[in-house]
Write a structure and sequence with these properties.
The chain has a single domain, classed as Beta Barrel (Hypothetical Protein Pfu-838710-001). With 154 residues, the chain is mainly β. The protein is 10% helix and 51% strand.
Length: 154
């Protein structure tokens, strides 16, 4: 069993946006809080992922690479719509790897940074371009953004 421990933050306007990122499309076969089944393409690779909540920051996660053609078919014929589209950037700060997702489509205007940890209690240094922590705000979970896009928030 694999655990995913991550913290999420909003990104400020002055973040160090790299020149290149990977285009990502993801959709959900199941998107309730206890059981998430996700299909994701990133660049030319794709995965099927199953997650469930263990704690607020930790999820049980199983992830399997699948053929791109299968993922594309699942995204457009099985997954709930709309799909999540974003560009993922990797930024190294304070000897840690941050993933920054710049959302597109119905979630345009939203940019989120994530840091994966080995344990929930590990202290981290926050770069100056990282803003408010949203780890416990379920509105920002990708599965919820597919049901309630950022552009519809008041």
């Amino acid at each position: 069993m694999k655990y995913e421990i991550e913290r999420k933050f909003l990104v400020k306007d002055h973040w160090p946006r790299p020149e290149d990122g990977l285009h990502c499309v993801q959709g959900y076969i199941s998107a309730d809080a206890e059981r998430i089944v996700r299909v994701r393409t990133m660049g030319e690779k794709s995965w099927l992922t199953v997650k469930s909540m263990k704690t607020q920051l930790t999820r049980i996660e199983y992830e399997y690479e699948i053929p791109f053609e299968d993922a594309d078919d699942l995204l457009h014929n099985v997954c709930k719509q709309p799909l999540i589209e974003k560009t993922r950037f990797n930024i190294r700060a304070f000897d840690m790897d941050w993933e920054v997702d710049e959302f597109h489509g119905e979630n345009s205007g939203l940019t989120v940074a994530e840091i994966e940890l080995e344990e929930e209690s590990r202290p981290i240094q926050i770069p100056d371009w990282v803003g408010e922590e949203i780890s416990n705000d379920h509105r920002y979970f990708n599965a919820n953004l597919s049901k309630n896009p950022f552009s519809t928030w008041k």
